[in-house]
Amino acid sequence: MTRILLARHGQTEWTQVTRYRGRIDVPLNALGRQQAEVTGGWIASRWKVSAVYASPLSRAFQTGEAIARCFGQPMTLRMGLSLYR
């Protein structure tokens, strides 16, 4: 059976103040990068992951990279993962 885990990106300066982002490329802030690392460790402590995918937005890409590092894998960029077109 295939299991799919979904993880939301870490904090950005805009999520901190509840500002709508849509497709605007706002990167993770320091706390967001830390959240991404912790999320990767949490996932790694529970499941064996065979692939990590993320959208091209930097906040999602940075989060995906942090999670993939916990598994010693590359993160795969997927253009179609962005919900906003």
The gist of it:
This protein is mainly alpha-helical and 85 residues long.
**What is the annotated CATH architecture?**
3-Layer(aba) Sandwich
Number of β-strand runs? 2
The helix-and-strand class reads mainly alpha
Beta-strand level of the residues, as a percent range? under 5%
Counted by DSSP, the helix tally is 3
Largest sheet: 2 strands, parallel
Ends apart, CA distance between termini: 31 Å
Order of helices and strands: HHEHE
Helix content: 25-40%
Radius of gyration (CA) equals: 13 Å
**CATH superfamily grouping:** Phosphoglycerate mutase-like
Assign the CATH class: Alpha Beta
Shape designation: globular
Number of domains: 1
Instruction: Give me the side-by-side strand order of the main sheet.
Output: 1-2
Low-pLDDT stretches are: none
CATH topology: Rossmann fold
* Mean pLDDT across every amino acid position: 87
